[in-house]
Structures are given as structure tokens and as C-alpha cells.
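[audit] Reproducing an earlier prediction to check determinism. Same input, same settings, fresh worker. If the C-alpha cells differ from the archived copy the diff job will pick it up downstream; this log only records the rerun itself.
[audit] input (257 residues):
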Amino acid sequence: MSGKVWKYITEKLASDGALHFTLLDPDPLTTNIDEVVQLAKISERAGSDAIMIGGSTIFGYIDESVKAMTEAVDIPTILFPGNITGVSAEADAMFFMSLLNSTNQYWIIGAQALGAPGIKMSEIETISMAYLMVAPGKTASWVGDAKPFPRDKPKIPLMYALAAELIGFKLIYLEAGSGADGGGVPSEMISMITQFSNVPVISGGGFNTVEDVVRGVEAGASIVVQGTYVEKNALADNGEGLKKRVAGLKAAGAKRV
């Protein structure tokens, strides 16, 4: 648990102003290893700063996929586990997450407790993250028994974000759900949280266009995540569309530096 990936994130934020992460789901029921490895390589060439690996419904063991992706790219691979089935020692780091607005204790601390002994022994770097579900939430919200925050009520997630900061989480993730419509998490919600909290905000779910990604950064997000867009388009255009989105994000982030 050397902290190399966290150092990489904080130093890149200081130099670039904002980061782009690609989220890939290695679920063997919906994809194959060669495909996710190719997507990881394309994402790195397009300028993405890290590969997040995970999903809400991963079945079986993912070690082989995670190992292949980690070996294929130079940027960090970071686990984004939807459950203990998404844990692997083959990544560079993992987001150790708590779904704070779940109605089920399992997703707040139960799964974390079950996974903690193995994670501790594996010595993988962990980065604590408060996971906050925003409507519509999609599959992640349904699986996680979440009570998603209404999109027009930014003060509610702000209270959770401030609690997360006081507890000591290193990151706050605002998640609208993979494949969500509406251009991602509302700007007002992102800006309100970043105005009052000192914890970097990651935002994902529905950020599809260049405008969506730029808007997220301009609202205050430190990191914008794209997953569904990459999985649906990056192979077809060899990452050209993703390259434009990353370039837009970096241009918006540079204005902060």
C-alpha cells in the first residue's frame, strides 16, 4: 500500500487541473479479455489518465482480465468494485468505496468488512471513496439498494459530501449510473459540492459528448469518468471520438491551473 496511485492522481490534478478516467467492465458474460484490453490501450492512446475496472454485476473471477489490462497499459489500473466479486490483487490500486445513500447496511459497510481481510493481505493500494448515487442511478442504484438523490435537490448530496469529508474519505464520487441520459450529474449539484467541500469530486454516468465532459469540469469535477461511451464507440472509431473528449476536458482543466 505504497500510495503511488494516489500520489499520481494528486500530482496530475495539480498539473492538469482535471483528469479523465475510463471505466471498463470485464464481466465475462458481456465481453471478453481481448476486447477490454484493446479498449484499455485505445483509452490510454486517447489521453485517458487511468483505467477503472469494475461493474455492478460482475460474475466470476476477474483476475485474468485485470492482470491483462494492467500489463497492457502504463497508466494506473484502479479497481471500482461493485461487490466483493470485483476485488483482485492484479490492479495497481482500488477505490475502497462506501455507498453512503444505500438503504442496506451491506453496501455501506458489510461488503467492505467481508473484503477487508483479503484486501489487507494483498497489500494493494486502497483509496477511500464516498460513493453517492444520483438519479436515475440505473443498475448501480438498483443493485446497491440506493435512495438516489433527486437531480434538482443539490443540498441533499451536499450534506452527505460534507459528512464524507469529515469522516475522512479521500474522494467523493457522484454517480448517475452507467448509460444514464441527461448529460451526466447536474452541474448545479457538482458545483454546490465542490464549492463547500475540499474533497476532490469524481463524476460519472451519462457524460457522453465533449460538451458533457467540459460542463462537468467547469462545474468543479476533478475527474470525469466515461464508460458506456467508450464501450460503445471506441473500437469502431479507434478512439478518435474519445480523444476529442479528453482534449476538451484537458482544455477546461488547464484553466484551473
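[audit] rerun output stored. Observation attached for the diff report: The beta strands are 19-24, 50-53, 77-79, 93-99, 125-133, 171-175, 201-204, 223-226.
[audit] end
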